[in-house]
Amino acid sequence: MSQEAPETEAGDSQETVNGRRLEALRLALQEGQAANVRVLTHGLRAPDLADLIELLEPDERVQLIQILGDDFDPEVMSELEEGVRDQLAEALPNEVLARVITELDTDDAAYVLESLDKEDQEDVLAQMPSSDRIALERNLEYPEETAGRLMQTDFVAVPPFWTVGRVIDHMREADDLPETFTDIFVVDPSFRVIGTIDLSRLLRTKREVLVEKIMEADQHTVSATLDQEEMARQFERYDLKSAPVVDANKRLVGVVTVDDIVEVIEDETDEDLRRLAGVGDESIGDSVITTVRSRIVWLAINLCTAGLAASVIKQFDASIEQMVALAVLMPIVASMGGNAGTQTMAVTVRALATKDLGPANRTRIILREAAVGLINGLTLAAILGPIVFLWFGIGTLGIVIAVALIINLFTAAVAGILVPLTLDRLGFDPAVASATFVTTTTDVIGFLAFLGLATLVLL
């Protein structure tokens, strides 16, 4: 018995409808009802089907794609989260994968293919049409996360002596042009870019006008080996819609478009956020074992550094026994320093990633953050000191925690910028390692300042 896709009822959210569809789809997969599977996925756009696939179990994903067969939209593979896409690429039969990859743009196809081992890559490539295989092999020659790996090899290139009419006729008759494009590249006999023409300008120009008369000669090109993060900064800086990619001999080999750059920016931002949290390249679709491996290393390092802070507290255990109020107030000192350090660290790591922080302004920014930490410390100390006095009735205790807070917030601000800068200078990724070291610094200095001052002044 076939079933229809869940319908939206009044008051139902899209999340509710997707939940019903997911339950029905899982039931159909479990019972092997291929017709129902096709009904439940019929009409879904690629991003929506990708979201649904990500919610399925790994074996269910493979089963779904095999049931859909030729009805499976290859574009879904480019919409999947990286971990899910890699899992499917490994699990699907190579003949299925070859069919899917053939339908993708070369940049998306390279993403799918790069996760396979060498033997499977060669097998998949061997089953593809020669033209697609050659284009894809060219992309794979470049390192990951470079313009060459991201570029599309389908583009429109014409010589400067052609007329507008000839270009239009060429675009109507040629079979190997990209499905969508906005820029036409003008090349010399060596296939080096000498200009571009916006498609709208071409269509508004009379047929007899030469291409060289309407081309824009000031064209921004990018090297095929340029890091994708740097390329994204250039797109943002120069407000580019697309950019021709050139090889070491300055010859045109591909094009990168702004939609690819949007994905790069999203991926890089997401990567920075994950690394700041110490979870590496973890994704929501990873297994328990993979997730544990991603997190355990930095948790173990944090355990060691937390022991350092605990050893500081141990040195003042007699003081804490004599005045229980110290134990009550210690979390305030630690949390304030940790939060202040995290604020500065987040700004610093992002500024390093975007190249907004460098030798030219390093000293000024360090001094600025130190001043911010000092002012914040003075302000919060003026608030916390009287509160502690009213709470415990000990005026000197209020002074001690106020001074300790000033010291710790100043230290947090300085550590929050110096730790990432130092790690970056040493060649380490500051997004990965900064949090552990900044937190340890603020905890140690905070406890040392507070308990040390309390021991000297109060006991």
Q: What would your notes on this structure say?
A:
The protein is built from 22 helices and six strands. With 459 residues, the chain is mainly alpha-helical. The chain has three domains: 14-141, MgtE N-terminal fold (Alpha Horseshoe), CATH 1.25.60; 157-276, CBS-domain, CATH 3.10.580.10; 288-458, SLC41 divalent cation transporters, integral membrane domain (Tetracycline Repressor, domain 2), CATH 1.10.357.20. The strands form two sheets. Strands 1-2-3 form a three-stranded mixed sheet. The chain has a three-stranded mixed sheet with strand order 4-5-6. Strand 1, helix 12 (164-173) and strand 2 form a beta-alpha-beta unit. The N and C termini lie far apart (82 Å).
List keywords for this structure.
single chain, 459 residues, mainly alpha, MgtE N-terminal fold, CBS-domain, Tetracycline Repressor, domain 2, 3-stranded mixed beta sheet, 6 strands, globular
Low-confidence stretches: none
CATH names the topology of the largest domain as: Tetracycline Repressor, domain 2
**How many β strands by DSSP?**
6
CATH superfamily of the largest domain: SLC41 divalent cation transporters, integral membrane domain
Task: Give me the side-by-side strand order of the main sheet.
Answer: 1-2-3
Summed up, the domain count is 3
Beta-strand portion reads: 5-15%
| Mean pLDDT score | 87
Counting helices, strands and paired strands, the structural category is: mainly alpha
Task: Report the helical percentage.
Answer: 55-70%
Given this structure, which CATH class of the largest domain is correct? Mainly Alpha
Please give the count of helices: 22
> What gross morphology would you assign?
globular
